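Deliverable D5.2: sample structural annotation.
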Amino acid sequence: MTPPASGDRLGGRDLFFATLVVVCWGLNYVAVKFSVSELPPLLVTSLRFAMVAAAILPFAPIRRAQVPSLILLSFTMGSLHFGILFFAMVSVDAATAAIVLQASVPFGVLIGALMFRERVGLKRGLGVVLGFGGIVILAGAPEGGGHPVAIAMLLFAALCWAFSSALFKLVPPIPALTYIGGTALFAVPQTLAASLLFEHDQMAAISAASAFGWGGVLFSAVGASIVGHGLWYGLVQRHDLSLVVPFTLLAPVIGVIAAVLILGEPFTLAKLSGGLVTMAGVALIQFAWPRRRARSL
């Protein structure tokens, strides 16, 4: 276990790392939108996982005892969360996706209460209501930035993320890089099989994809997964969650700004009001957490 850092603030290096993480995660919404605009979304998911596994596993080998847990998490976090997320983003704005995926936080509160009998409390309960309330505003508005079915798929993807996080607490400890690389490895055949079953003309799309399409896949794999999650797990090992978790509130903000500036998506009243309500709920939940350290990975 990495010794935790002392003090009540992040040092210069870790402050830079935390900022880099949320920038990578925010820009990832734009990267995914570029990639699924040119390539079948399930194929994009499979390619992304293949890149991540190839880059990480030579440095973080999998032990036999870890295989069952990694296979389970590769299905819930890999195939379900990312597969459904990428599929939904074909029909939804990147800015809308950045907001709706924050539902993983209130979902996490509900799952924690059901699975681990965690106390919700008044503040976190209000946060759950606000978190989902903002998404209702988005889904119900014509200018919300996505078809209601696609928004429902994003909500399910957020639920899969929260459920996977709960499962991670139940399995034996797995080092962070092994977790990222192992779940990617076992998700490749699942998502590739889904692509072959539900999509078509994959080779034609691969041949026709531009630098923007491939760049989106590459950034999603390297920027969001390897750099973003790799640095993040180091931060939560070294610092109190109360110091690092609030930085995650910046990721959807960066995602919305990037979608408007880079993709030219409209910044509508529904996105503004729904986003503010959802982020208020997420912030209320995050800051209501007790001050504690993360589990060693």
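Annotation notes: The chain is about 75% helix and 0% strand. The two ends are 7 Å apart (CA to CA).
The annotation will be released with the project's public dataset once the embargo ends.
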